[in-house]
Design brief:
The chain has ten helices and eleven strands. The protein is of the alpha+beta class. The protein has a four-stranded antiparallel β-sheet with strand order 1-2-3-4. It has a four-stranded antiparallel β-sheet with strand order 8-7-10-11. The radius of gyration is 28 Å and the shape is elongated.
Amino acid sequence: MNDKFKKIVAVLATLAVLAGGWYFFYWLKSPQHSVALIADAVRQHDLKTFEKHVDMDTLYGHAYDDVVAVTFGADKDANPIIVAIVKGIKGLAVPLLENETRSYIMHGDKPENEAEVHKQVASGNESGAEIVDNLKDRTGFGALKFDGVESSNVDGETAIVGIKLHDESLNRDFVLKIKMQQLDDGLWRLLQITNLQDFMQQREAAVKDKLAELNKPIAEQIAQNVQLDKKLLQITSVHYSAIIRMLESEVTLTNTSGKNINYIAGVLELYGDDGQIFYSGNFASNSVLQNGANKLYKFDFELNPYVNEDAQVINSDLSKIKWNAYLTNVAFDDGTSLDYLTALPEK
């Protein structure tokens, strides 16, 4: 090897070392690295590191607002009662979320201070705990597994990072977009999930489709045992209010199961011109339906004009509305039953 070639090799080696070092230090100060630190902190039960890189108060404050927005929609701002309740419960729900997170980081799935959490709930935080459970159920976070960083967009001292999550119960990937703020030491802290509302709506649609798939054979079994015929759908007034209306429906059930039926439950659905459901209500009856018999069932659904969904029903021409009623639960006198799944099976 001649001297000139040796010098070229030496220069290239030096540049490679410098580039490698630059990338290493760049990685240490990148949002992706801080996301990795958060994931490691969860796995290693390192609460100190987790709290350094996650602003739980800001994170859960925004998350609470997003859950409320998805749950109540436009009614949240239109109904002063809902507004008051939402504001009052937030001060209970956010600390509960933070406490549960700290407990999970330190102890995993079975926190040692679980009794203390229940003690807090028993002392008057039932509504806050209900919101916490609602958030966990509707986001499915218990079934989500971190699958890496998909994207990162840095703008000064803030960054939007796309986190890829795999939902084991749905066998599907989702992307959460998180907002991060750079700390004084160059590392980053998670502040907010910016697309939580979209994520919740996408996941709920996916869960609905999956449950429909799983419940299809159950629906076929119910149809083989009980025949349902739609008869009537109308809106009437009520004696106890000048503004409340009642949606009345009538269906005939015929028992062909070979057994007596002790209980039925089902769902009433109304569809818009686009074919989408704009109103649904649950009905149930524990009236005994003898084997081989048929019976007319009447079910009422109270409509409040200050609730958007109810108002749409009140203002609809029911003679032109497509509607459906179907059974989701049938219990027989021998102790057996046919029941729709209401939650995805745990894997």
